[in-house]
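Much of the work behind modern protein science is quiet bookkeeping, done one molecule at a time. The protein below has been through that process, and both of its lines are reproduced in full.


***
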Amino acid sequence: MRGMGNLMKQAHKMKAELQRLQERMAQTRIEGSAGGGVVTAIADGNQNIVEIHIKPEIVDPEEIEMLQDLVVAAVNEARRRSQELMNEEMSKLTGGLELNLPGLI
Protein backbone atom coordinates (compact mmCIF):
# COMPACT_ATOMS: atom_id res chain seq x y z
CA MET A 1 0.00 0.00 0.00
CA ARG A 2 2.97 2.35 0.48
CA GLY A 3 3.52 2.28 -3.26
CA MET A 4 -0.02 3.49 -3.84
CA GLY A 5 0.47 6.30 -1.34
CA ASN A 6 3.63 7.43 -3.10
CA LEU A 7 1.88 7.26 -6.44
CA MET A 8 -0.96 9.44 -5.12
CA LYS A 9 1.57 11.96 -3.73
CA GLN A 10 3.27 12.11 -7.11
CA ALA A 11 -0.08 12.55 -8.87
CA HIS A 12 -1.02 15.43 -6.56
CA LYS A 13 2.39 17.02 -7.05
CA MET A 14 2.10 16.74 -10.83
CA LYS A 15 -1.41 18.21 -10.74
CA ALA A 16 -0.12 21.21 -8.75
CA GLU A 17 2.78 21.63 -11.18
CA LEU A 18 0.37 21.46 -14.12
CA GLN A 19 -1.77 24.15 -12.55
CA ARG A 20 1.28 26.40 -12.07
CA LEU A 21 2.27 25.73 -15.68
CA GLN A 22 -1.19 26.68 -16.92
CA GLU A 23 -1.09 29.91 -14.92
CA ARG A 24 2.38 30.73 -16.26
CA MET A 25 1.33 29.93 -19.82
CA ALA A 26 -1.70 32.24 -19.53
CA GLN A 27 0.74 35.10 -18.80
CA THR A 28 3.18 34.14 -21.57
CA ARG A 29 3.02 36.04 -24.87
CA ILE A 30 4.11 34.53 -28.19
CA GLU A 31 4.28 36.51 -31.40
CA GLY A 32 3.52 35.42 -34.94
CA SER A 33 3.86 37.71 -37.93
CA ALA A 34 3.24 37.76 -41.66
CA GLY A 35 4.11 39.97 -44.57
CA GLY A 36 7.51 40.87 -43.20
CA GLY A 37 6.00 42.04 -39.92
CA VAL A 38 3.19 44.22 -41.27
CA VAL A 39 0.66 41.99 -39.48
CA THR A 40 1.44 40.63 -36.03
CA ALA A 41 -0.65 38.36 -33.85
CA ILE A 42 0.08 37.85 -30.17
CA ALA A 43 -1.10 34.65 -28.50
CA ASP A 44 -0.88 33.59 -24.90
CA GLY A 45 0.60 30.26 -23.92
CA ASN A 46 -2.87 28.72 -24.04
CA GLN A 47 -3.19 29.56 -27.75
CA ASN A 48 -5.67 32.39 -27.26
CA ILE A 49 -5.09 35.34 -29.56
CA VAL A 50 -4.85 38.38 -27.30
CA GLU A 51 -3.71 41.09 -29.73
CA ILE A 52 -3.54 41.84 -33.44
CA HIS A 53 -1.32 44.63 -34.79
CA ILE A 54 -1.59 45.90 -38.35
CA LYS A 55 0.76 48.55 -39.66
CA PRO A 56 -1.35 51.36 -41.14
CA GLU A 57 0.59 51.49 -44.40
CA ILE A 58 -0.66 48.01 -45.35
CA VAL A 59 -4.34 48.96 -45.13
CA ASP A 60 -5.62 49.45 -48.67
CA PRO A 61 -9.35 48.98 -49.37
CA GLU A 62 -8.42 47.57 -52.77
CA GLU A 63 -6.27 44.86 -51.17
CA ILE A 64 -8.51 43.74 -48.29
CA GLU A 65 -8.19 40.06 -49.27
CA MET A 66 -4.40 40.23 -48.96
CA LEU A 67 -4.75 41.82 -45.51
CA GLN A 68 -7.15 39.08 -44.44
CA ASP A 69 -4.69 36.43 -45.64
CA LEU A 70 -1.87 38.09 -43.69
CA VAL A 71 -3.99 38.18 -40.52
CA VAL A 72 -4.82 34.49 -40.86
CA ALA A 73 -1.15 33.63 -41.47
CA ALA A 74 0.01 35.64 -38.43
CA VAL A 75 -2.65 34.10 -36.20
CA ASN A 76 -1.77 30.60 -37.33
CA GLU A 77 1.93 31.20 -36.70
CA ALA A 78 1.28 32.58 -33.21
CA ARG A 79 -0.95 29.62 -32.32
CA ARG A 80 1.59 27.13 -33.71
CA ARG A 81 4.41 28.69 -31.71
CA SER A 82 2.21 28.74 -28.60
CA GLN A 83 1.46 25.02 -29.02
CA GLU A 84 5.16 24.25 -29.47
CA LEU A 85 5.97 26.11 -26.27
CA MET A 86 3.25 24.26 -24.33
CA ASN A 87 4.50 20.92 -25.68
CA GLU A 88 8.07 21.77 -24.60
CA GLU A 89 6.92 22.77 -21.12
CA MET A 90 4.74 19.68 -20.74
CA SER A 91 7.63 17.48 -21.84
CA LYS A 92 9.83 19.04 -19.15
CA LEU A 93 7.12 18.48 -16.55
CA THR A 94 6.41 14.87 -17.48
CA GLY A 95 10.02 13.92 -18.13
CA GLY A 96 9.28 13.27 -21.78
CA LEU A 97 6.38 10.90 -21.14
CA GLU A 98 3.49 11.42 -23.52
CA LEU A 99 0.48 11.45 -21.26
CA ASN A 100 -3.12 11.85 -22.29
CA LEU A 101 -4.67 13.30 -19.17
CA PRO A 102 -8.06 14.81 -20.04
CA GLY A 103 -9.02 17.64 -17.75
CA LEU A 104 -5.51 18.35 -16.52
CA ILE A 105 -4.34 20.46 -19.44
